[in-house]
Specification:
- The protein contains 33 helices and 25 strands.
- It is α/β, with parallel strands linked by helices.
- It has 3 domains: about 110 residues, no CATH class; about 260 residues, 3-Layer(aba) Sandwich (Rossmann fold); about 270 residues, Glycogen Phosphorylase B (Rossmann fold).
- Strands 1, 4, 7, 8, 11, 12, 13, 14, 18 and 19 form a 10-stranded mixed sheet that branches. Strands 22-21-20-23-24-25 form a 6-stranded parallel sheet, sandwiched between helices.
- Helix 26 links the parallel strand 24 and strand 25.
- The protein is globular and about 90 Å long.
- It starts with about 25 loop residues before the first helix and ends in a 19-residue tail after the last helix.
- The chain binds ligand 26W.
- Ligand 26W binds next to helix 6.
Length: about 850
């Protein structure tokens, strides 16, 4: 069971001031050297960069820990409503620099280190990325933790402490190879606090005995139990001395009390049982937007949910006695359906552990839980076989069964005789538990992540649920942390902005609109161009060092960085590059703005077509980069092992942001917002948050092309698109599609057959050929606009100036006010909130 002690960490090297930003440079230097010696038993001269990094992180953690303790004390006193964000993924990236920035001591630290001959950047580069997520959903969770702490909300993350994060990608012979991401390097994570005294017991398997003696009791027997041991990662608020926590659970088995004899003849069996059970939290599933019903994944989901719920209820009961007050004091948010078992688990705790009756437990559960949907792709919707759930989680399955019965009855009552409707909305149907249906039934709020996405949920994917309970549905457009993605990742731009409009945009990102008048200031636009150039030089240096390719920093840096997926259409980008290359080969003197195309992204290991896409891009890059006849007008790069840290290098250096998903398929996108904030121009479809970006930046400052979502959905519903028509009528398209299989590339002629056939023989599901022509035109417009330097810089500036609305602080104010109904004063992200942009 869960226990909690209020242990406080002793400080070893007290800083003279309690406010971190008041620490002097000399004190910081001395504390750093002392920490280093103490931790490693080595002098500064003897220490490696890795050891110095560990010492600096430890010192920073020590400062953080004081604020953590203070925050906890304050909260115990104020008893604010607590938000728990449950997510199976957190894509944190590195934390040292963002912690220093949020504490307000980055410059002090850099200066202190320089006194002893150390470059802060050298130590920052020593940190491994914490890659406990696949893509958008995981990075969003990390951005939100940052915003919740910055806004001072009592908001905590709950997740899993995967021993191996998202695989490391190596490109060998143009193909993706996957290697384990041993991010912990068999040590502990520098930022975490292990809290074994707060471990929770999670039960799997066994049977349920129903005991009726007056009141029905459910007794779970013969189960296997695994300890969930929490590791708390501090989440530092921006210069507000608030520290929240991200609690990551790790599976552990305690064999000290097991006698070896019950497992067999020798202790090896006990030890191998321990290893087997603890492997539960070994790996992050590398699947993004593709559901596979693996039992280990289901175990992970329940492990996260059960441990978190026990912790939440335990913490609640430390300060409150009546469980009926839970919805007033606690909000539990589930990040997609992966933690949807929180619904039956909360029911189980309330009914079995606290003897509440069904109705009361259900009312509390629904009022406490809210759910965000992150995808409309049918292949991503989770459905677990009944047999698997029954066996692995017998009591939870009984509760889901009861939820289903009551939910179906309710639908039937409202729609008598409409069996089709009941079947389409049932939580259990066709021998499977539909997790999205469970999530909708068991929460008071369901939200999409961009306006168009929510509309698609309401009008199409979840239409039956919407008509059943329209008030549950709302939209909260995603946001990103401007502190990491602008202040930290692009210090030159941040300084330029602050010099121009002052620092208020850091607390109130909507103040970035104060930049608008500078659109007419030629000198400012020049400075903006200089910042971009410097960032491009930094990226060019990385590319030269890592790939030995020289790129022209006067060329357009056109970036397409995200997970590799058919709907994200990296292939469309590749086909366009082939087309540009064909034109150049035909006439090397053709007027064409030089371009550097940058790709980055991982393919799920089992996703054949996505892996072929990587091979296509790398093969194209090889061919083009070697070709001297095109006078260096085109370069193509696939940057391996795309992760948060690489994004921080690429985004500030990009001129063009490729957001070219098939309209209706990308729920929101968040990379699009990061690029916008860094002054890259979006080349995109009317999909996800691109639509809101085009509204905020104004349609003149973005390049839009392609089918609308409505047109795409109409084709999906009614057919009527034949890729052969496009292929036969546009010679540019015919040429590039043929080149996939006609020996144009120096590889086996069948290498790209799957890509070719998907376009011509399998209906071109993502409308690449249909959108090709308008994509080419939009790209041409990009090239022409770039030649007018001042116009381009003006457009960049207006994008930056209008990007404040996409700050996670705005998103979280919306969640806080409209979904979690927090009882504290509403957090403010915009000084002039009444005149907010939207
Ligand atoms: C079960 C397999 C699986 C794994 C991950 C299914 C679905 C997912 C995620 C929901 C996919 C995801 O990351 N979605 C992305 O979420 C972002 C944050 O809201 C959005 O910006 C992206 O558009 C969306 O693709």
């Amino acid at each position: 069971m869960l226990t909690k002690t209020n242990q406080e960490c002793p400080t070893r090297f007290p800083m003279p001031s309690s406010k971190p930003e008041h620490v002097s440079v000399v004190d910081f230097r001395d504390a750093f050297v002392a920490t280093l010696q103490n931790l490693h038993g080595k002098s500064l001269a003897e220490s490696t960069d890795q050891e110095k990094f560990i010492a600096l992180a430890a010192l920073t953690k020590e400062i953080i820990s004081k604020n953590l303790i203070e925050t906890r004390k304050q909260r115990a006193h104020d008893k604010p409503k607590q938000v728990y964000y449950l997510s199976i993924e957190y894509l944190l990236g590195r934390l040292l620099e963002s912690n220093l920035v949020n504490l307000g001591i980055r410059d002090t630290c850099a200066e202190a280190l320089s006194l002893v001959g150390i470059e802060l950047n050298t130590l920052l580069a020593q940190e491994e990325d914490a890659g406990l997520g696949n893509g958008g959903l995981g990075r969003l969770a990390a951005c939100y933790l940052d915003s919740m702490a910055a806004l001072g909300l009592a908001g905590h993350g709950c997740g899993l402490r995967y021993r191996y994060g998202l695989f490391e990608q190596k490109i060998v012979g143009g193909y993706q190879h996957e290697y384990p991401d041993n991010w912990l390097k068999n040590r502990s994570y520098v930022w975490e606090y292990r809290r074994p005294e707060e471990k929770a017991s999670v039960r799997f398997g066994g049977t349920v005995r129903v005991h009726t003696n007056g009141r029905t009791k459910f007794i779970h027997e013969n189960y296997e139990h695994i300890w969930a041991v929490p590791y708390d990662v501090p989440v530092v608020g921006y210069k507000n001395e608030i520290v929240n926590t991200l609690r990551l659970w790790s599976a552990e088995v305690d064999i000290s009390s097991h006698t070896c004899s019950i497992y067999g003849q020798d202790c090896n069996n006990v030890i191998s049982y321990k290893h087997g059970a603890e492997s539960l939290t070994d790996i992050l599933y590398p699947d993004d937007s593709h559901y596979e019903g693996r039992v280990l994944r289901l175990k992970q989901q329940y492990f996260l949910v059960s441990a978190s719920l026990q912790h939440i209820i335990h913490s609640f009961r430390l300060h409150h006695s009546k469980l009926s007050e839970l919805p007033d004091k606690v909000a539990i948010h589930i990040n997609d359906t992966h933690p949807a078992l929180a619904i039956p688990e909360l029911m189980r705790i309330l009914i079995d552990d606290y003897s509440l009756d069904w109705e009361e437990a259900w009312s509390i559960t629904v009022k406490t839980i809210s759910y965000t949907n992150h995808t409309v792709l049918p292949e991503a919707l989770e459905k677990w076989p009944v047999s698997m759930l029954e066996q692995l989680l017998p009591r939870i399955y009984m509760i889901i069964h009861e939820i289903n019965e009551r939910y179906c009855r309710d639908i039937w009552t409202k729609n008598p005789g409409d069996w089709d409707r009941v079947r389409s909305m049932a939580v259990i149907a066709d021998g499977q538990v539909h997790m999205a249906h469970l999530a909708i039934a068991g929460s008071h709020s369901v939200n999409g992540v961009a306006k168009i996405h929510t509309e698609i949920l309401k009008n199409s994917v979840m239409n039956n649920f919407y008509t059943h309970t329209p008030n549950k549905f709302s939209n909260v457009t995603n946001g990103i942390t401007h502190r990491r993605w602008l202040l930290m990742a692009n210090p030159l731009l941040a300084k330029l902005i602050t010099d121009a409009i002052g620092p208020s945009w850091l607390d109130y990102p909507c103040d970035l609109t104060k930049l608008t008048p500078f659109a007419k200031d030629a000198a400012f636009l020049e400075d903006l161009a200089k910042v971009k150039l410097q960032n491009k030089l930094n990226l060019a240096k990385y590319i030269k060092h890592k790939y030995n390719v020289i790129v022209d920093t006067n060329s357009i840096f056109d970036s397409h960085i995200k997970r590799i997926h058919a709907y994200k259409r990296q292939c469309l980008n590749a086909l366009h590059i082939m087309h540009l290359y064909n034109m150049l080969r035909e006439n090397p003197n053709i007027k064409m703005t030089p371009r550097t195309f940058i790709f980055g992204g991982k393919a799920a290991p089992g996703y054949y077509k996505a892996k072929k896409t990587i091979k296509l891009i790398t093969t194209l890059a090889d061919k083009i980069n070697k070709d001297k006849t095109i006078n260096g007008k085109l370069k193509v790069l696939f940057l391996g092992n795309y992760n948060v840290s690489l994004a921080e290098l690429i985004i500030p250096a990009s001129d063009v942001s490729e957001q070219i998903s098939t309209a209706s398929r990308e729920a929101s996108g968040t990379g699009n917002m990061k690029f916008m904030m860094n002054g890259a121009l979006t080349l995109g479809t009317m999909d996800g948050a691109n639509i809101e970006i085009s509204e905020a930046a104004d349609a003149d400052n973005i390049f839009i092309f392609g089918l609308s979502a409505e047109e795409v959905l109409n084709y999906y519903r009614h057919g009527g698109y034949n890729p052969w028509d496009v292929y036969n009528s546009d010679p540019r398209i015919k040429t590039v599609v043929d080149q996939l299989v006609n020996g144009f590339f120096p590889v086996d002629q069948n290498e790209f057959r799957t890509i070719h056939d998907a376009l011509l023989y399998h209906g071109d599901e993502y409308f690449l050929l249909k959108d090709f022509s308008s994509y080419v035109s939009a790209q041409q417009q990009v090239g022409e606009t770039y030649l007018s330097k001042s116009l381009w810089q003006q457009m960049c500036l207006l994008n930056i100036a209008n990007s404040g609305w996409f700050a996670g602080d705005r998103t979280f104010s919306e969640y806080a006010a409209e979904i979690w109904h927090l009882d504290q004063p509403l957090p403010v992200w915009c000084q002039c909130q009444s005149q907010a942009l939207h």
